[in-house]
Amino acid sequence: MALEGTLRDFSLSDILQLIALQRKTGLLTLRSPDDTVTLGFDEGRLISAESSAKRMDTRLGTLLVKTGSLTPELLSKALELQSQTLQRLGFILLRNGFCTTEDLRNGLDIQIRKITFGLFRWNDGGYIFDAQDRVDYDREFVTPVSVESLLMEGARMLDEWPIIEKVVRSSQMIFQRVPVSQQVVQAEGDEEPEEIGDASLVRRGREGTDEPIRISRAEWEVYQLVDGHRTVAAIIDRTFLSDFDGCKAFFDLVSRGLIAETRPVLSKTSALGNVTGELHRIQKSSPLSAGTVVVAAAVAALVFAGWSAQGLNPANLFGSSSHRPQAFETFAKSLSLLRLRLLSEAIDAFSLRTGAFPDALESVEASRLIGRAEMSDPWGRPYRYVHQKDLGKYYLIGFDAEGRTDPDLFLSHVAQVSSPHPSSMRARNRNEIVVIN
Question: Does the pLDDT value for residue 374 go beyond 90?
Fold first, then answer.
């Protein structure tokens, strides 16, 4: 069968369907400026996937090392044996007892799917299918993958990626855990992970329940490695998760309120400039009186003066440039809370105008319901907005002076469409400040 062209004319899904329907055996090679990928098929089922950017054996060995299934020393020894014998890496690993059969099977399956799913995001590239009588592969450890399951998973991935990327914007992002009073555990056996939203921290904070928070296996693998230092890419590399499943686990953990992005710390001079300027901007967008704003500005100036003069007072036993006055933090948090309320009201107004919550805060700003400055905290960091469209719910998350998620600055809002009058709906569906102990 002569099958050759570009992905602009014939999509990857169409190519895979044709190979599966005709139960073809052979090699499908796809080329892009950055990589060349070769997929092997046996009677229409996927049996191998190799990338020229990284050889399959090297990727498999690295994966086994990062997941703790293989030591770097044993991998080096196995690769040395492979160069001498030209045998498959998997055969060498098992024959010498370097890893278990289950580890090898899982690693091979993940690598095949990881490379293949990456192709679904290619927008362009050339392809050619070379039909053959037989394609050699390790039948003992490789389970052929049906094209139908690949296409279903690929379609789901393409549908959910745009939503996930709004939270996990880059593989170089760093997340940290959010302190919670309940124990976080992996759902075991017949237990189902808790629904995101229905069993969220918002409900838990309101009901005061101490039951463990049960999360999925993928979420658990990611959650264990989140430490405020590792990047998203580094954490996914240490798991048996594909790029998509790994990023989705990050997204779900953020939606649950269990992790949050680590943000850079701003200097106190920059912070004060944002705090004092904040008051004048709030005056234009809130019902505060001019006198209130003047008094607040004076308080801000006095607080900062005391803060700056700590080190000059010889009688101050606690004055240190590394310790921030409690008064200043309390004042800044109050400002941040006020700004969160203004932002939440703007989102509600957007919902009343359009019939739905916005997908991103930029839509609220574009509608001129709030200014750009009111969408950031007193330290200049933008608030986090998480929209769960299927639940009709959104979260607004604020941060403390160090850029960590502040449990005291956590707002949620659930749309209630049962009320025939927007005004009455607004009266019954007020935002809550959720304090997480």
Answer: no
- Quick check: 394 and 431 in contact, CB under 8 A? no
Provide the 3-class DSSP secondary structure of residue 229: coil
Q: Domain map of the chain by residue range? A: 3-164, 175-261, 268-433
CA nearest neighbour of 376 among 394, 398, 355, 345:
398
* DSSP label at residue 322: T
* Threshold 0.70, pTM exceeds: no
How far apart (Å, rounded) are the C-alpha atoms in residues 334 and 329? 9
More confident call, 332 vs 150: 150
pLDDT in tens, 131-142: 999 998 878 788
* pLDDT for residue 16: 92
The pLDDT tens digits for 6-26 are 988 888 888 999 999 999 999
| Residue tagged 């855990």 (tokens) | 177
Closest CA to 122 of 16, 234, 218: 16
Angle at 350 between CA 345 and CA 356, to 5 degrees: 115
Tokens of 426: 């607004």
Q: Report whether 288 contacts 282 (CB < 8 A).
A: yes
Tokens matching residue 15: 């190519």
Query: Who contacts 154 (Cβ-Cβ below 8 Å, separation ≥6)?
Result: 12, 13, 117, 120
pLDDT tens-place string over residues 30-55: 999 888 999 999 999 999 988 887 65
